[in-house]
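Sequence in, structure out.
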Amino acid sequence: MMSTARLGRKHVCILVAGLVILMDINIARKGSKFVDLSVLWAEDDQQPIHRRPPQVPLCPECLEIIQRANLTDTSFVDVATNYSHMGAVDERNKTGYVHDVTTLRRNQPKWNMTDQDIAAQCENQDDWYRMLKQRVFVDWEYEQRMQASSKKRIKILCILYTSTKSHAKVVNIRETWGPKCDGMLVASDTADKTIDSVKLLHKGPEEYKNMWQKIRSMWEYVYDNYYNEYDFFHMGGDDMYLIVENLRRYLESDEIQAAQNGGTFVSSKPEKMQYPLFLGNRVKHNGDVKQMYNGGGCGYTLNKAALKLLVVDGLPNSHVDVVGSAEDLFVAEVFRKFGVYPYETKDENRGERYMAHNPGFLYNFRKNNWVGRLTMDPVEGHNHTSPQAIGFHYVSGEMMRRMHALLYHQCPPTLMTT
């Protein structure tokens, strides 16, 4: 091991698991040479890991939330033999089916809107229009900069729950934001090749009041089959709209990358040990802050540590046979047992990133409406929504396509005003 007996300038050295981490200046002297101790080597492949502090320190509340939980070893543990892991079947009802979740990204469906249809969707300059053209935006500069760099991007698996009667909604997702995810899993009660849905097995009937059992099976199926291929996992319903570029930027930010390392450093590659992250729209159950959860509407995001903790340690011992629709409450309750709480996902101006409703409803947001009464420390008006919003709820049908046209500059220039 490198000696730290001779140090240049002022340093703080910490010995952790046989590795010397030199904080602040990160320079030690070995003989007549300076050595950068912020460069460590991974145990598995001996490739260097570069660590640095985040550009902006995490907020005190953010640090408190993270540090309530324990570090989790993200190595995969096979628990597929657990009796509750029921898996999926193919179109012939053959068990053990594993879907190729990259199909949609590799084979994006045609955008089925004529120029006339797009113009009709763009003409009405209402609150939806104002929110999506004057407030929220896709950060193309960041996206182009990252695509031009050699930096490895994080991989996101998007997970959608639906049912046979709602498959038409999924068609809109497949033609808009769905292909932007690195992987897409559509869990339904039927295997439908037109939308690449998976018939997922779960306890009890396929009905809204049994959503908890469906969500349990979905998370188990995702962990069993896709855990090692993805960095983050976002689950929501068939009426959510995701701005995937904004989600990816947020997850790649110094804040989130540092958060899963305990808030103190950003690593150049994923660390084996992570703090669980439970990201979404924080709401108070019946106004009780102690029962905070992430509303399921526009979905919530888990990192690898959170997904493993949920499936391996949480679900086998939590509400195993419960029938209920409040899956988002149950997930939060499971996490609380392990000290994992919804992370503060607002931006620096207290704008929400994960939205509980649609753009039109939120443009003139008020604290005294039903969403405001549940929201943590809300801001009124369109400032309630972050310019880099990640997702919206209650978006379906033509409104899904309208959002896409407005956000991705598909409206005719003659209709565009500021």
